[in-house]
Write a structure and sequence with these properties.
480 residues; alpha/beta; Rossmann fold; 5-stranded parallel sheet; 18 helices; 37% helix; elongated; binds ligand PMT
């Protein structure tokens, strides 16, 4: 048995998995080393205790002073410096770490790690740590594509169980275009959050609808609403962070779909209905955040309607859209999967109206949302909701939509466990180890076909799908 001074890892709230986490950022010598400063700043802002280790070559691109100022801690640069080794030696850093992030992980750095070398500050602490290791590669496209680099990455994933985020594609400092860009610091932070978050939704299939619907009047005009998609996208991202397999059905929204989430773009209620019929076939949880139009124009004009022909008055005949949530509720019957979570956007008698929707739409949970309250509801980054189910109404403290999303999922997970005999979600953090394993598997699958967890590539694919789904007339026009 191997035993040592490392205390058991702390439980973590999936809404803030980086808060209080001890993260070591290892910086290798590449042109992207300057971006590590932004990464360190973001990790620090998220509440992590960040230490930085640098190779000698990294210090040619950026000075340790920058990282010392950002972390307010000494930077580990020299394995053979007696003072450094005594105060922040590589073994102490390696033992204390909850996560080690190597950014940028250069071709040379990856080769050293894959060979199990320990001759510099970064590789020594990576070899010594038992914490998860996240690699963020960055290099020239031909170096990245080289079979030896690919073999090194595979070895690091398959043999050592390390995780990989990126590289992204684009125009590189070496003037080549292709894969090799360091993943965006925000994407590296999210990958770190995923690794440190409890994976209590691992294996759970979650469908989330988000955003508005646009109901076409003519090729230029539509009836829409004020939903930005922020709340639904936050729920999709939160479920993904907790290990769920997530399908996001997104109405017209300017937001990029979250990385790692399968996104389908829809424009109107009927399209959303089709997408839902497909996505919910094997879903465990469905969260209906989308602001679906209750009515649509009875006829869509093929040509743009002309004011000169309409005169001073125009009448628009509307027909009712299907109530998608109610249809799901009716089809499913009580107490069976998927667990149905509806929203109620209300401007008065919020809880009472939410209770009515719980009954009429036959769902398990209704998120009551007073959209008249400042800082809540449409288009803002925060929300204030009450979770209404048959037994109770739980007020969620007002906060960022990213946090509110986790509280909604907490309740949905408990309801899922109750309906299906699935083990109830463990206390935050208790399944972190299982989560790390699941994430390893994800990284393996991603690396196998050559590219690692490439956030940009994933986003691009989703965007293409979104563009495809926006073929209907009147798609971007905003005048009604
Ligand atoms: O996107 P954001 O800018 O972040 O704003 C978030 C939000 C305010 C849109 C969100 O928090 C919210 O309240 N969403 C529900 C909006 C809504 O349509 O509420 P509703 O009370 O009209 O509908 C009740 C439920 O029935 C909803 O789950 C809705 O998705 C569903 N519905 C409604 C109409 C319809 N034809 N079919 C449906 O399935």
């Amino acid at each position: 048995m191997v035993d040592g001074p490392r205390p058991p890892r702390a439980s973590r709230d999936p809404a803030k998995p980086l808060a209080g986490a001890r993260i070591v950022v290892g910086v290798c010598g590449g042109i992207a080393a300057y971006k590590a400063a932004e990464l360190v700043r973001l990790l620090d802002k998220a509440g992590a205790h960040v230490d930085v280790a640098m190779t000698e070559r990294a210090q040619r691109f950026i000075g340790p002073m920058t990282f010392q100022a950002l972390t307010r801690r000494p930077v580990f640069t020299d394995l053979f410096n007696l003072t450094e080794e005594a105060t922040i030696g590589h073994i102490q850093l390696a033992d204390a770490a909850d996560l080690v992030v190597i950014a940028p992980a250069t071709a040379n750095g990856l080769a050293r790690l894959a060979a199990g070398e320990a001759g510099d500050a970064v590789s020594a602490l990576v070899l010594a740590t038992r914490a998860p290791v996240l690699l963020a590669p960055s290099m020239n496209v031909n170096m990245w594509n080289h079979p030896l680099t690919q073999a090194n990455v595979r070895r690091l994933v398959d043999v050592a169980g390390y995780h990989v985020v990126g590289p992204g594609e684009g125009f590189l400092a070496c003037r080549w275009t292709g894969p090799g860009r360091l993943a965006e610091p925000a994407d590296i932070v999210e990958a770190a959050a995923l690794l440190l978050s409890p994976q209590d939704l691992a294996g759970v299939r979650v469908v989330v609808t988000a955003g508005p619907t646009y109901e076409a009047i003519d090729p230029a005009r539509f009836i829409g609403n004020r939903s930005s998609g922020k709340m639904g996208v936050a729920i999709a991202a939160a479920a993904r962070r907790r290990g769920a397999s997530v399908r996001l059905l997104l109405g017209p929204s300017a937001l990029p779909p979250p990385v790692g989430v399968t996104t389908t773009s829809v424009e109107n209620a009927v399209q959303l209905g089709w997408a839902l019929a497909d996505a919910t076939k094997d879903a465990d949880v469905v969260v209906m955040t989308a602001a679906v139009a209750d009515y649509r124009p009875a006829n869509v004009a093929k040509e743009k309607l002309k004011r000169s022909e309409l005169g001073g008055r125009m009448e628009l005949e509307l027909v009712a859209n299907p109530d998608l949530l109610a249809e799901l509720g009716a089809r499913r019957g009580r107490g069976r999967r998927p667990v149905l979570v509806g929203f109620a956007a209300e401007t008065g008698d919020v809880i009472e109206n939410a209770r009515k929707k719980l009954e009429t739409k036959r769902c398990d949970l209704v998120v009551a949302n007073d959209v008249a309250e400042p800082g809540a509801g449409f288009a803002v980054d925060t929300n204030h909701v009450t979770l209404v189910d048959r037994e109770q109404a739980i007020e969620v403290p007002a906060g960022p939509k990213s946090e509110v999303a986790h509280r909604i999922l907490d309740r949905a997970a408990a309801l899922l466990a109750a309906t299906a005999g699935v083990a109830p979600p463990a206390a935050a953090g208790a399944k972190a180890a299982a989560g790390a394993k699941a994430a390893v598997a994800g990284a393996k699958a991603a690396v196998a076909p050559k590219a690692a967890l490439a956030p940009k590539a994933a986003v691009k694919g989703d965007e293409r799908a979104r563009e495809k789904g926006r073929g209907a007339p009147g798609k971007r026009a905003g005048r009604a």
